[in-house]
Amino acid sequence: MQVGTYGLNTTKPGGTPSFGGGLAATAVQQQQEATSMLGTVASQEAEREMANKAAHQQAEAGQAQLGATAGAMAGMAVAGPWGALAGGLLGGLLGDDIF
């Protein structure tokens, strides 16, 4: 058994010197695990953010398409082919604001 500063035992059970104590080694290990977990969580959050942006863009595109379709149908009913064209353009431009 080796005795270090302040009379503390610096030998692990089994006779191997610990070189810094068990608590310090445990703290370093926990810090490394926490840092690794933070990196994992950060990459997962980045993936979620990208998926949310893609879903938002798809929703906006769907609303514009719905607006164009509804506008074209309404325009066709009111003013024939030219009304369909104008209604489709206006519906496509305003579709994400309307729906």
> Structural class of the helices, strands and pairings?
mainly alpha
The amount of helix comes to: over 70%
Shape: rod-shaped
Per DSSP, the total helix count is: 1
Strand count = 0
Q: Beta fraction of the residues?
A: under 5%
Q: Are there runs of 5+ residues with pLDDT below 50, and where?
A: none
Query: SSE string, helix = H, strand = E?
Result: H
Domains (count): 1
Average of per-residue pLDDT values: 80
Oligomerization category of the chains in this entry: single chain
CA radius of gyration: 33 Å
Biggest sheet record:
none
Distance between the termini: 78 Å
Describe the structure.
It is built from one helix and no strands. With 99 residues, the protein is an all-alpha fold. The protein has one domain (5-98). The radius of gyration is 33 Å and the shape is rod-shaped. The mean pLDDT is 80.
Topology, pairings included?
Elements: H1 22-98
Feature tags:
99 residues; mainly alpha; 0% strand
Summarize this structure briefly:
With 99 residues, the chain is mainly alpha-helical. It has one helix and no strands. 8% of the residues are buried.
